[in-house]
Predict the 3D structure of the following.
Amino acid sequence: MTNNKNHSRDFSSEFRFSASRSGGAGGQNVNKVNTKVELRFSITESQLLTDNEKELLLKKLKNRITTEGELIIVSQTERSQLGNRRRCVEKFYALLKESLTPPKKRKPTKPTRASKERRLEKKRYKAIKKELRKKPRI
């Protein structure tokens, strides 16, 4: 089901899927077939995640996690249940990768001499423009 060559760990044994009827456009197919797929993954009970990873995921994905510690991912874009299952799994691994990748360190930079000179030149120009708006002194 899952392409494991893209992922370092296989979480498929910890996934719980449920299907229901999709909403929106799609004609008679939407009204008859359970194509909407919901993937549930319990972060707190996962055997494959370290405690540190669990803590990080719970913090970063707190708006997408239930009070029981379950991450819920829904897909209803495809016309088949199988296609939506695939999309859910792809979304899960993308979310996992994004959440567990540490942010890049910011390298502090200094403004260049040219940028400082341009800023000062703009300031002088604005000052002259404002000075010309004033009424002349008699």
Remarks:
- The chain has one domain: 1-138.
- The longest strand covers residues 36-42.
